[in-house]
Amino acid sequence: MTPETADITDTIWDAAAGFVDRHLHDTDFTTAAFDEWITRDPRHRIAYDTLMGVARDAALNDALAAFDSPPAVNIATVKATRRKVMTYGIMAAAAVAVAAFVLPPVVYDQITPLSVYETEAGQPREVRLSDGTALHINGASRVEARITPFRRHVRLSQGEAYFAVAKDADRPFTVALDGGDVRVLGTQFNLSYMPGGVELNVYEGKVRLKGSDRKFGLFTRGMRARLTDGAITPLPAFDPDGGDWRAGWIEPDNWSLERVAQEFTRRSGTPIRFENDALKDKRIIGRLRLDDPQSQLETLAVVHGFEVARENGQIIIR
Question: Left (φ > 0), alpha (ψ -120 to 50) or beta: where does 34 sit?
């Protein structure tokens, strides 16, 4: 599977910022190059209109003016009024890099577009973010990402994802979760929403998991933890080389049957329904193949004393 790139490249935003600044300040500006650029790709118009709106946003201009330390301007090359300096500063914040300015991270956060990656059950997906981070997103999952020159913010709001985070000591990588967050500089880990919370598995490097009570734990290769209602619980170690859902397998270690069913549905796309809720808490141990949930569940049924049927495209556990 070929990883996808971020939806809008940094190059487009750089070019858009340049055209906006020239439109606002260059009296000798000619439209030929702009007309060719703006019609070449629909994303060019989106970027240009977005940044022009930012440049004319009075509230954002006021916010920039309120900073105690205003952006540093190269006086030798930029001779402008206060208004021009401020407007060009906003454009620098919108673009990825304009060397004449050092602007506060909050400006980048406001104008950097949010990329959303959402999968249906049975349709895992690979994505490569603009910083080089690779995401392996399981089925029935949702990831939101905003990567700026200062910060790397991601939110996993449902499902499961494996993160291979590009190393960048100057830009910590944060994943927001229900009840807490994960923070790293460059490492590999898996996060999964399951019945009762979110589970963290660390494959490489070091991961800081913080709960809503601001308490945190540091976890390294082979370590696991669960985040439940904002509280962190360390779990028994696992084998990072043992394979996982990305290879089409899971190895339940005293998992609930409900969680096993959830993993089957994410990977295969087959809905699984419990007719008897008491069966959800059956504890499962073993190695299971994810692409054939019915046969795997039928094998478990013999051991654990339940029945499996298929009705109207669903697997029924009773």
Answer: alpha
